[in-house]
Structure formats: structure tokens, C-alpha cells
Amino acid sequence: MIKRFTQAADEVAAGIGLIRENAPDAAKAFGSLAVAATASRSLDSKTKELMALAISIVVGCEGCIAYHVHDAIQAGATRSELLETVGVGLFMGGGPGSIYAAHALEAIDQMLPVLQPALDIGPKGGSDAD
Hints:
Radius of gyration: 15 Å
Helix content: over 70%
CATH class: Mainly Alpha
Largest sheet: none
Structural class: mainly alpha
Number of domains: 1
CATH superfamily: AhpD-like
Strand content: under 5%
Number of strands: 0
Shape: globular
Distance between the termini: 35 Å
Low-confidence stretches: none
Mean pLDDT: 88
Number of helices: 5
């Protein structure tokens, strides 16, 4: 189990760098897919990152959880939006999803204090309503 999700997000990015070096064609194709899939169209990038987080919980990918919590926060997701997304992941993942939902909560608690002040987005509490 990952304990430091902020570090895990950096490790995922480093791993992607290794793939770019060693399998550049595959990395380029995957990168193009990622750009196309996450571009704002009918759904904005934040919504798509929240969807990716829920899917990460369901499939049990801790590196994916770290990566998509990070990118959802970067896209402007608030704590309450992230927590609702964890609930969706838990619902769709059942019992095993509860383990990864807890990991997503740890990732949120580790990354929000670091990323949110730098981006100056949303309140830091559990609710987005004032």
C-alpha cells in the first residue's frame, strides 16, 4: 500500500518518462489518447479527472489514484467533489473498492494541503458551500 501519495504521483510521472525513453512510439500514442480523452469538450477536464479517480478506485490502481487525485486538484476539484467521487468509486467497486476508496482519501488528505494553496482554489474544509 502506498503511504505517500504525493511521492507516488511523482513516481508515476517518472515511470511515464521511462516509458517515453524506452518505448517512444507507444508512449506518444498513449499520450495522444490521454490528451484527446481529457480535453474539455462536453465534459470539462476536472469532471474527466474525477471520473478517472472513480475508475482508479474500482480497478484498484494506487498509482492511478495518486495521479488522478493530483490532476483533479490541478484542474480545480474541491475536497467535497473529490469525496463525492470517492463515494462513486466505492459504490461501483463494492467491497474491494472500499480499500482503494480509503487510499483515495489518504491521497486527498496528503495532496490538498500541498497543491490547493499553490493554486488558490476552493475552501480547504469538507464542504464547498459557504
